[in-house]
Amino acid sequence: MERDNYDLIALLQKVPTATVSLQLSDLNAFSRRLIAQTREEYEREITGRLESRNEVYLSSDAVKQTLKISNTTLWRWAKAGMLVPVMVGGQKRYRQSDIDKLVELRP
Fold first, then answer.
1. Is 30 helix (H, G, I), strand (E, B) or coil?
2. What angle do CA 11, 14, 18 make, to 5 degrees?
3. Could you tell me the pLDDT band of residue 74, with boundaries at 50, 70 and 90?
4. Looking at residue 77, what is its pLDDT?
5. Which residues, including other chains, have CB under 8 Å from residue 90's CB and lie 6 or more apart?
6. Looking at residue 51, what is its pLDDT?
7. Phi/psi class of residue 81: alpha, beta or left (left: φ > 0; alpha: ψ in -120 to 50)?
8. How does residue 94 score in pLDDT terms, banded at 50, 70 and 90?
9. How many CA atoms lie within 13 A of 46 on its CB side?
């Protein structure tokens, strides 16, 4: 079989009892592709859920500008659990509602 012309998932669905011999590099490539596809599906699902809510998500730069803090402070707050980022479409974002809570707590 040519490397680019086979799909292990399709083979599994057609012949689930088949015995297959393949190189570790092929298995590695397959697992990376499967992980990437799963991640894309998960991010689409999460993004769809997020869009259905009225939550606003800000970039790191927007948060730093809004709160007038440095990279180091933002990193320390994330590490301490005070302002935890979420992944939206593969990018780190911060919930506006979490930022609003922080602003209320600040003197």
1. helix
2. 65
3. very high
4. 92
5. 43
6. 60
7. left
8. very high
9. 14
93 close to 51: Cβ distance less than 8 angstroms: no
Reduced to 3 states (helix: H, G, I; strand: E, B; else coil), residue 19 is coil
**Tokens in use for 52?**
């259905």
The pair of three-digit structure tokens given for residue 18, joined into one six-digit string: 């088949």
Strand order in the sheet with 57-58: 57-58, 91-95, 86-88
Give residue 45's pLDDT.
Answer: 77
CB–CB of 88/57 below 8 Å?
A: yes
Length of the chain: 107
pTM for the structure as a whole: 0.50
How do 57-58 and 86-88 pair as beta strands? unpaired
Tally helices (H) and strands (E) across the chain.
Answer: 5, 3
Average pLDDT rounded to a whole number, residues 78-83: 91
Write down the pLDDT at residue 6: 59
Fill in the amino acid letter for 40. E
Distance CA 29, CA 68 (A): 44
